[in-house]
Amino acid sequence: MASSQELIDELRRRASIFTSLDNSDDSDLADTGIDFAAGFAPGVGTALAFRDFERARRDGDKLGMLLSGIGATPGVGGIARGVNMTRMADKMTAAEKAWATRMAKVARNKGVQHREALRNGETIVEEVTPPPARVIISPEELYGKVGVQVQGDRSKANSVVRALRGIPVEGGVKLEGGPQYAQLALENNPGGAWASMRGAAQGKQNQFNRAAELTGREPIGVYSAMSSDGVNFSTPVAEAMIKQLRVLKPNKNAVVTADREIKRLAPEFVGLQSQEALDQLLGRGGFPMEGAGQVRKALVDTLRKAEYEYQGFPVYDDIIDAVTEADLKNVPLGASGYTAFRAIPNAKLIEKGSVKTPHASYDTVIPGEYIGGLQKSVPPEIMFPKIYERQRALGRNPFRIHRSLQTNNQDFEEFDQQWLDNIMSYLRKSGE
Questions:
Q1: CATH for the stretch 134-150+173-225+330-429
Q2: Is there a cis peptide before residue 178, judged by omega within 30 degrees of 0?
Q3: How far apart are the C-alpha atoms of 55 and 431, rounded to whole Å?
Q4: pTM, two decimal places
Q5: Strand (E) positions, 128-216?
Q6: Could you read off the pLDDT of 52-105 as tens digits, one per residue?
Q7: Which residues contact 419 (CB under 8 A, 6 or more apart)?
Q8: What is residue 320's predicted lDDT score, i.e. its pLDDT?
Q9: What is the distance between the alpha carbons of residues 63 and 53, in angstroms, rounded to a whole number?
């Protein structure tokens, strides 16, 4: 029978992140071993415990890391069953006892057990057609122009999500971008470059007009990455949640509670169990597109919470992983240059009805032409150095700068010799 110390060593061997425990008192950890994995239904421990490990790690909760690590480590259940539990109560605080009790309750939840029984396969994301090769450009090709930051989510394009970790997604969920929208627009929407709602699109077009008028330079729209959850406004995440709910079985009372919370944020929401829910979220079937994004965001921001995941609702992280462009999964907020397009000053916006293949999330297309993107994204303060310098002078942190540039429709960056020297120096130092 394995000792507590052997269990700790095994956890450390299998999960490198456990090295964060190296400075702890191993004797105390050994004394607080617990048969936590044994409390889980088959397959449930791994699914939930990695996320709890991360939460515990961020909170500095070493006991929480140990308990969740047991649940997250394949094959450790048998070892864990041999750990002495008799001294557990003396070593746990009230908060730690409450945490352990809650996790055991989660593992017994019928909705969680049903979801995890299904959630035991592959994520399937099919390409609609072979994607066109990404055009790689160098900063020299942007020299002499003027850049306007165009913020967008990180979602893939030209793909359909068919299953999420084995959970089927009825009818699939179409992915339209994201950063690749401008690239695909060359074939699908000639003359179009970026999709948004009418008001935001007009504001961005006005910004292109202003940049060209004040500098006399050709305006370039430069993609800048939103946060990883920036995709919550567009259709894929909400659609995937609704379609998974058709096969999952969360507790009915939890569904009622979730509906109530969503409606506090979006009173017009028809409800998770309504046959019209998907139509409303997609702005179709008599429901307006205007405002649908806010309903989608309210739904996703609610259902992504641990309290709902712990009752058998869809796993938000599974969806984000499936819909996010691989090259952008780990880039920081505002990472820039993955996509760029040539804007057209004073051009008329393209209405959804006149677009060959419209973006399901938005009703308006900004005219322009895709020109390519940098090999890898660069920090926003490298792509837009003078803008960031002005913003920092106002006392704003990176998040507030990002938010300001998303809404003010004023700033632009002249890609002059100083800019070129700066970005080339950065790329050389970073090995690009």
A1: 3.10.590
A2: yes
A3: 34
A4: 0.78
A5: 146-152, 157-164, 167-176, 192-196
A6: 555 555 555 544 555 454 444 444 333 333 334 334 555 666 766 676 677 677
A7: 143, 385, 386, 413
A8: 95
A9: 10
C-alpha distances out from residue 292 to 188, 274, 374, Å = 24, 16, 33
Measured distance CA(209)–CA(188) in Å, rounded: 25
Instruction: Give the position of tokens 């089927």.
Output: 168
Residue 38, token pair as written in the block: 């044994």
Is 225 in contact with 334 (CB distance < 8 Å)?
yes
* Residue 355: DSSP 8-state: -
The conformation of residue 372, written as its DSSP 8-state character, comes to: E
Beta-bridge partners for 221: 148, 341
Q: Measure the CA–CA gap between 77 and 2, rounded to whole angstroms.
A: 11
Q: Tell me whether strands 219-225 and 124-127 are parallel, antiparallel or unpaired.
A: unpaired
Dihedral angle sign, alpha carbons of residues 310, 312, 318, 319:
negative
Distances (CA, A) of 344 to 338, 384, 418: 20, 20, 25
Cα angle: 399, vertex 376, 350; to 5 degrees? 70
Is the C-alpha dihedral spanning 81, 82, 85, 88 positive or negative?
negative
CA dist 285 and 194 (Å) reads 25
The residue ranges of every structural domain in the chain are 4-108, 134-150+173-225+330-429
Measured distance CA(137)–CA(243) in Å, rounded: 39
d(CA 158, CA 176): 6
Percent of the chain with pLDDT strictly greater than 90: 53
Helix (H) or strand (E) holding 336: strand 336-343
The rounded distance, in Å, linking the Cα atoms of 9 and 64 is: 17
Alpha-carbon distances of 110 from 157, 310, 315, 337, rounded to whole Å: 35, 10, 15, 46
